[in-house]
TrEMBL record:
<feature type="domain" description="Helicase C-terminal">
    <location>
        <begin position="539"/>
        <end position="693"/>
    </location>
</feature>
<dbReference type="GO" id="GO:0043138">
    <property type="term" value="F:3'-5' DNA helicase activity"/>
</dbReference>
<comment type="subunit">
    <text>Component of the replication restart primosome.</text>
</comment>
<dbReference type="InterPro" id="IPR005259">
    <property type="entry name" value="PriA"/>
</dbReference>
<keyword id="KW-0378">Hydrolase</keyword>
<dbReference type="Pfam" id="PF00270">
    <property type="entry name" value="DEAD"/>
</dbReference>
<dbReference type="GO" id="GO:0016787">
    <property type="term" value="F:hydrolase activity"/>
</dbReference>
<dbReference type="InterPro" id="IPR041222">
    <property type="entry name" value="PriA_3primeBD"/>
</dbReference>
<dbReference type="Pfam" id="PF18319">
    <property type="entry name" value="Zn_ribbon_PriA"/>
</dbReference>
<feature type="binding site">
    <location>
        <position position="507"/>
    </location>
    <ligand>
        <name>Zn(2+) 1</name>
    </ligand>
</feature>
<dbReference type="GO" id="GO:0006269">
    <property type="term" value="P:DNA replication, synthesis of primer"/>
</dbReference>
<dbReference type="GO" id="GO:0005524">
    <property type="term" value="F:ATP binding"/>
</dbReference>
<feature type="binding site">
    <location>
        <position position="504"/>
    </location>
    <ligand>
        <name>Zn(2+) 1</name>
    </ligand>
</feature>
<dbReference type="InterPro" id="IPR011545">
    <property type="entry name" value="DEAD/DEAH_box_helicase_dom"/>
</dbReference>
<comment type="similarity">
    <text>Belongs to the helicase family. PriA subfamily.</text>
</comment>
<keyword id="KW-0639">Primosome</keyword>
<dbReference type="Pfam" id="PF18074">
    <property type="entry name" value="PriA_C"/>
</dbReference>
C-alpha cells in the first residue's frame, strides 16, 4: 500500500503529496488525516497522509517510519477544507493543515549526530563528546563543524533528525479494583485481623467500584503507600496511570441558567434560524442588534435546539471579549458540554480541550478565531459574535478569515451560520441587503433600557478657552460627580497601530493624501508625512494650511501619561490601568476586571481591550479621550472602525438600572462617523460610508489584495516590488488599480526591508488567478535569492 503524504516543508516545490510505502505491519493502521514520520532527503519529517492507495507511478519508494497518531487528526471534511484554504489564501498545504490543529500537534525537530564507527576510530577531538552516548545533540558538536563534515563524508558519523511531539500528556496515578464486588468481599474476609485500614479501603472500592486517584485514597484514609502497595501485591487493587485533561476551569462552579421566555422580537429573529436547523439547510444570517438587545440569548437557544438534534455548535467570540462573563453564560447553560479555546490557555490546556472535542466529549466550543477548525463531525450551527472584529482575520499565513471558513464548513454540513453585530462590516451588511445573507433585526435593548446619552466635546474649543489638558471640562465635571456618588467610570484611550498623524489642535485639520483619502503617516526621523498606499510624500507644515495656527504637530498619547494626568487632577480617585503592559501576565486581565467589578477602583482606564464585554451595573460614565486616533489611522476602513468602536464603548454605560452617560472628546466633531456613532445610527452611517467606498473604489465595491515583498537588500526589494506591480497590471488590464509600490508601514522586520503594493479589482476570481501567477513567476527568485512575497487577499490591517 502507498500513502500520499504532504511533508512539513512549506515551499512551492514541496506543495504536493509525496508517495511513501506503508510497511506491511502498518497497513491497517495508516489512514488519511494521520500524522506520520517520513524520511525526506537526509531528514526525518512530520507529514500528513492525504490518501492511501494501492499503486504509485514511482518506483523505489521510501517507507513511512512511524505513525504519530492512533487515529486521524484531520477528518475528510477538514482535509478538503485544507485544500480549499490553500487555494483561497494562496498558501501551502502544510500550513493549511497545521493551522487547523492545536500548536501542540506541530512537530519539533531535533538535530543530532550518531556515531557509527567505534569510538576509538573517531578523531581525538570528537571522542569526549561520545563518551556518554552514541548520539549527541548537534548543537553540542557545532564547534567541530569541519571535522564533522569530513567524518560524515567517510561514514563514521551520521546526522539524524528526530521528530518530537511538543505536547506532554498529563497523567495521574489511579487505583482501581481488580476484582468484582463478591470477590472483593472474599478478599476482605481473608485479611488478617490487624489489617483494619486495608479493610476500609476495600470497603470503599466495593461501594464505589471505579478508578479513584491514588492521592485521594492516601489522604482520605490517612495511610502510607505501603498499605496500598500490599493490596496491589495481593492482586486486589491495581495502580494505573491515566491521561487526564487539564481543565482551565477546574475549580470553578457555574450556576445553571435556564432559557428566558423570548420576547416577541427575539421570537421573530430566532424562528428562521430554528427552521434551517430543522430542515438541515445552509443559510447565513446577519443578526443585527445593539448591545443588550438579546443576541446572546438567541445564540443560546438556537444551540439548544441543535444539541437536541444530537448535533454540535461552534461559537466564535473575539479574543478580548472571551471574558469570564461570556464563558459563564455558555457554561452556565450547557455545563460540561462546553469546551473553551482562547490564547490565555497553555498549549497543553489547548491540546486537552481539542482532544475533548475530537473525542466528542463536548458538543459546544466557545473560542477565538482558530476554534472555527474544531474537529466536529456533525456540525449543526456556527455562530460568529461581533462579526466585524478584525481579529477574525489571521494576519500570518494562511491568511484566512474565520467568516469565510465558517461559511465553507456550513455548506458541507448544511447548517446555519449566524453573524451577530450591532455594527456589521460594510461587506456583510451589503450582502444582507442584497439578500445573500438573511437579515434578522433586534431593534431594541432588553427591558427597553434606553441607550446612554452621548455628548460630543469639541477639544478645539477647550483649547480656545485656555484648557490645554487632555481632559475637557465636561469630562472633569463628570468624573467628579461620579466619584462623589461612588459610581464607576470607564476611560477609554484609543491607541492602535504604529503610526501617528499630523493634526492642528486649533481647527482639527488633519493632513490627508490627495490621492487615497487616508491620513498621511508622520515619520519622526525624516520629519516627513507619507501616504503608505500610494507613496505620496510631503514635509510637515509649520503652520496649519486651514487656519494658519502654529499648533500643528503629530498626535498620540499613552495610557501611562493619562494615568499621571488623572493623578494630578483627581488625586483621590483609584485607577486601574489596563493595557498591554499591565495585562501581559497570565490571568492579569481577569484579575483586574474582577477588582474593578468588586468596586476596588473608581476608574478603569484602558485601550481597546476594555471596549467589549464589560457588563458591570455600576458603570455610569464612559469617557473617550480622543476619538480621533482611530479616525486618522492610515486605513480606508478607519471611519468604519471608529464608528464600530465608539458604538461599542458607548454600549458599556448604563446597562442596568442606573442611566448611562458617554462623553466623546474629539477635534473633528463634525465627522460623520463620530456624529452618527453618537446617535447610534448605523443605517445612516452605512449609506454614507458606502458612497465614499464607491467613489474611492474600495471594498465592498472592489476586491483588494496587499502584496508585501521583503529581503535584506533594500534595492532588490524596491525593484522586485516595482516589477510585480507592473506584472499584475499587465495581467489585469486597465481595470485594475495598482497602488504603490511603497515602503510598508513597518519598513523593516528582523533586518529585512519591506515594500508593498495594493491592488484593487472588480472581479474576485480574476484577481485571485493573477495573484497566483505572481508566485509562479517569481518562484526562481524566492527559491534562490531568499526573497519573500506574501499576498494578503482582502487584508484587514493595512
Ligand atoms: P446581547 O448579546 O445583544 O448584548 P444579551 O443576550 O446579553 O444581549 O441580553 C441582554 C440582557 O438581557 C442579558 O442580561 C440577558 O440575560 C437578558 N435577556 C436576554 N433575553 C432575555 C429575555 N427573553 N427575557 C429576559 N431577559 C433577557
Ligand atoms: Zn488649523
Ligand atoms: Zn495616497
Amino acid at each position: 500500500m502507498i500513502a500520499k503524504v504532504i511533508v512539513d516543508v512549506p515551499a512551492k516545490q514541496t506543495d504536493r503529496p509525496f508517495d511513501y510505502k506503508i510497511p506491511a505491519a502498518l497497513e491497517s493502521v495508516i489512514k488519511p488525516g494521520m500524522r506520520v514520520v517520513v524520511p525526506f532527503g537526509p531528514r526525518k519529517l512530520q507529514g500528513f497522509v492525504v490518501e492511501v492507495q494501492e499503486k504509485s507511478a514511482f518506483t523505489k519508494l521510501k517507507e513511512i517510519v512511524e505513525p504519530m497518531d492512533l487515529a486521524p487528526v484531520l477528518n475528510q471534511e477538514l482535509l478538503s477544507l485544507g485544500d480549499w484554504l490553500t487555494e483561497e489564501t494562496l498558501s501551502y498545504k502544510i500550513s493549511a493543515f497545521q493551522v487547523m490543529l492545536p500548536a501542540a500537534l506541530k512537530a519539533k525537530y531535533e538535530k543530532k549526530i550518531r556515531r557509527i564507527a567505534p569510538l576509538d576510530h573517531l578523531p581525538a577531538k570528537l571522542q569526549p563528546l561520545f563518551q556518554e552516548s552514541d548520539t549527541i545533540l548537534w548543537n553540542d558538536a557545532a564547534p567541530f563543524f569541519s571535522i564533522l563534515q569530513r567524518e560524515a563524508a567517510n561514514g563514521s558519523i551520521e546526522v539524524i533528525y528526530e521528530v518530537k511531539e511538543r505536547v506532554k500528556k498529563k497523567k495521574i496515578k489511579y487505583l482501581l479494583p481488580l476484582l468484582d464486588k463478591v470477590a472483593l468481599e472474599q478478599a476482605k474476609a481473608s485479611l488478617v485481623v490487624t489489617a483494619e485500614k486495608q479493610r476500609k479501603i476495600i470497603d470503599f472500592f466495593i461501594e464505589k467500584h471505579e478508578p479513584v486517584q491514588l492521592r485521594e485514597i492516601l489522604s482520605y484514609f490517612n495511610v502510607s503507600t505501603s498499605t496500598v502497595k500490599s493490596l496491589i501485591k495481593k492482586g486486589i487493587l491495581q495502580e494505573k496511570e491515566m491521561e487526564v485533561y487539564r481543565d482551565p476551569f477546574e475549580d470553578r462552579v457555574f450556576a445553571k441558567t435556564k432559557p428566558f421566555p423570548l420576547t416577541k422580537e427575539q421570537e421573530k429573529a430566532i424562528s428562521p434560524i430554528i427552521a434551517t436547523v430543522e430542515e438541515e439547510r445552509q443559510q447565513v444570517f446577519l443578526l443585527y442588534g445593539v448591545t443588550g438587545s438579546g443576541k446572546t440569548e438567541i445564540y443560546l437557544q438556537s444551540i439548544q435546539r441543535v444539541l437536541e438534534k444530537g448535533k454540535e455548535a461552534i461559537v466564535l467570540v473575539p479574543e478580548i471579549s472571551l471574558t469570564p462573563q461570556m464563558v459563564k453564560r455558555f457554561k452556565g447553560r450547557f455545563g460540561d458540554e462546553v469546551a473553551v479555546l482562547h490564547s490565555g490557555l497553555s498549549s497543553g490546556e489547548k491540546y486537552d480541550e481539542w482532544r475533548r472535542i475530537e473525542r466528542k466529549e463536548v458538543k459546544v466550543v466557545v473560542g477565538a478565531r482558530s476554534a472555527i477548525f474544531a474537529p466536529f463531525e456533525n456540525l449543526g450551527i456556527i455562530i460568529i459574535d461581533e462579526e466585524h472584529e478584525t481579529s477574525y482575520k489571521q494576519e500570518d499565513n494562511p491568511r484566512y478569515h474565520a467568516r469565510d471558513v465558517a461559511i465553507k464548513r456550513s455548506q458541507y454540513y448544511q447548517c446555519p451560520v449566524i453573524l451577530g453585530s450591532a455594527t456589521p462590516t460594510l461587506e456583510t451588511f451589503a450582502r444582507a441587503q442584497k439578500g445573500v445573507y438573511e437579515l434578522l433585526t433586534l431593534p431594541n435593548r432588553m427591558n427597553n433600557q434606553s441607550l446612554p446619552s452621548v455628548q460630543i466635546v469639541d477639544m478645539r474649543e477647550e483649547l480656545r478657552d485656555g484648557n490645554r489638558s487632555m481632559f475637557s471640562r465636561a469630562l472633569i465635571e463628570g468624573l467628579k460627580e461620579r466619584l462623589e456618588k461612588k459610581e464607576q467610570i470607564v476611560l477609554f484611550l484609543n491607541k492602535r497601530g504604529h503610526s501617528s498623524f499630523v493634526m492642528c489642535r486649533d481647527c482639527g485639520y488633519v493632513a490627508n493624501c490627495p490621492n487615497c483619502d487616508i491620513s498621511l503617516t508622520y515619520h519622526r526621523f525624516s520629519q516627513q508625512m507619507k501616504c503608505h498606499y500610494c507613496g505620496y510624500e510631503a514635509s510637515v507644515p509649520t503652520r496649519c494650511p486651514e487656519c494658519n495656527s502654529e499648533h500643528i504637530r503629530y498626535f498620540g498619547t499613552g495610557t501611562q501619561k493619562v494615568e499621571e494626568e488623572l493623578g494630578k487632577i483627581l488625586p483621590e480617585a483609584k485607577v486601574i490601568r489596563m493595557d498591554v503592559d499591565t495585562t501581559s501576565r497570565k490571568g492579569a486581565h481577569e484579575r483586574l476586571l474582577t477588582e474593578f467589578e468588586e468596586g476596588k477602583a473608581d476608574i478603569l482606564l484602558g485601550t481597546q481591550m476594555i471596549a467589549k464585554g464589560l457588563d458591570f451595573p455600576n458603570i455610569t460614565l464612559v469617557g473617550v479621550l480622543s476619538a480621533d486616533t482611530m479616525l486618522h489611522l492610515p486605513d480606508f476602513r478607519s471611519s468604519e472602525k471608529t464608528f464600530q468602536l465608539l458604538t461599542q464603548v458607548s454600549g458599556r454605560a448604563g446597562r442596568h438600572e442606573l442611566p448611562g452617560e458617554v462623553i466623546i472628546q474629539t477635534y473633528t466633531p463634525e465627522h460623520y462617523s463620530i456624529e452618527l456613532a453618537a446617535e447610534q445610527n448605523f443605517d445612516r452611517f452605512f449609506k454614507r460610508e458606502m458612497t465614499v467606498r464607491k467613489a474611492r473604489q474600495y471594498p465592498p465595491y472592489y476586491y483588494i489584495a496587499l502584496i508585501t515583498v521583503s529581503h535584506e537588500n533594500v534595492a532588490m526589494v524596491a525593484s522586485v516590488t516595482d516589477k510585480i506591480a507592473k506584472f499584475v497590471q499587465s495581467k489585469l488590464s486597465n481595470e485594475a488599480h495598482v497602488l504603490g509600490p511603497v515602503v510598508s508601514p513597518i519598513s523593516r522586520i528582523k533586518n529585512r526591508y519591506r515594500y508593498q503594493c495594493l491592488i484593487k479589482y472588480k472581479r474576485e476570481p480574476q484577481l485571485n488567478n493573477a495573484l497566483k501567477t505572481i508566485l509562479d513567476h517569481y518562484q526562481q527568485d524566492i527559491a534562490s535569492k531568499g526573497l519573500q512575497i506574501s499576498i494578503d487577499v482582502n487584508p484587514y490591517i493595512l
